């Protein structure tokens, strides 16, 4: 959310699952309204998945053979990066839970989605990492 709270936690997926596959297999696509905007990392090509809902996917601009970005692209990328840093910080807070720092033992794999949900949900109880004026 704009204030740094986690509003969606998908089920857990194996390490070889691509970002695109996670989006396709989760219920994330059903959560957006016409005209919404989301952020994604550079190189995550999922715009087509959201196009039918008119959801804009904000990703850093790729050079595509150019040596540098246009001034407008630089300003836009800085704006996106200033928001994206909050996402990375929240994920970093959740990853501090000891259980998420290492590979799950085989007996806990069936609980992976629940473990992930609890760790990220508890992270929401911390003070907001985003200044209310950001």
Automatic annotation (TrEMBL):
Is the Cell cycle keyword given for this protein? no
Q: Which UniProt keywords apply?
A: Metal-binding
Q: Which cofactor does it need?
A: a divalent metal cation
Q: Residue span of the signal peptide, if any?
A: none
Against Pfam families, the record matches this protein to: DDE_Tnp_4
UniProt-recorded Gene Ontology molecular function terms: metal ion binding
Is Transmembrane among the key words of this record?
Answer: no
Q: Which InterPro entries match?
A: HARBI1_dom
Q: Which residues form the DDE Tnp4 domain?
A: 1-124
Indicate what this protein is called per its UniProt record: THAP domain-containing protein
Organism, as annotated: Ostrea edulis
Phylogenetic classification of the source organism: Eukaryota, Metazoa, Spiralia, Lophotrochozoa, Mollusca
């Amino acid at each position: 959310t704009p204030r740094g709270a986690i509003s969606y936690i998908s089920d857990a997926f194996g390490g070889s699952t691509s970002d695109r596959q996670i989006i396709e297999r989760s219920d994330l696509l059903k959560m957006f309204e016409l005209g919404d905007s989301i952020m994604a990392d550079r190189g995550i090509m999922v715009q087509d998945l959201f196009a039918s809902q008119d959801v804009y996917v904000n990703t850093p601009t790729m050079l595509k053979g150019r040596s540098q970005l246009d001034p407008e692209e630089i300003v836009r990328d800085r704006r996106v990066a200033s928001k994206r840093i909050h996402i990375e910080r929240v994920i970093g807070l959740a990853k501090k839970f000891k259980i998420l720092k290492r590979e799950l033992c085989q007996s806990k794999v069936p609980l992976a989605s629940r473990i992930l949900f609890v760790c990220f949900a508890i992270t929401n109880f911390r003070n907001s990492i985003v200044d209310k004026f950001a």
